[in-house]
From TrEMBL:
The keyword Nucleotidyltransferase does not apply. It comes from Rhodovulum steppense. Residues 9-84 form the Sodium symporter small subunit domain. This is Putative solute:sodium symporter small subunit. Pfam families: DUF4212 (PF13937). It comes from the Bacteria. The chain crosses the membrane at residues 17-40, 52-72. Keywords: Membrane, Transmembrane, Transmembrane helix. The keyword Transcription does not apply.
């Protein structure tokens, strides 16, 4: 496998990870916070309905979780492809 093929495999895995993270965040922030809010309004969490919670705090918490998930997965991806910093 040439260096160009290795680089393409690395970036393909990186872009796939980014797209998965963005889809999860879009589903949580737009889907749960806006589109599915009427369905989630009957479920109470923290003194408010679940749809409002996802729109205000839930999407932010999921985004922070995705940042740590992305960093963890990229470190393992870097090690797998031999481009880690250590």
């Amino acid at each position: 496998m040439s260096d160009k093929d290795k680089a393409m495999a690395y970036w393909k895995a990186n872009v796939r990870l980014i797209l998965i993270s963005l889809v999860i965040w879009a589903i949580v922030s737009f889907g749960f916070g806006i589109v599915l809010r009427p369905l989630l309004s009957g479920i109470a969490i923290g003194g408010t309905d679940l749809g409002f919670w996802f729109a205000q705090q839930g999407s932010i918490l999921v985004f922070l979780g995705l940042i740590f998930f992305y960093a963890f997965r990229m470190n393992s991806l870097d090690r797998k492809h031999g481009v880690d910093e250590e």
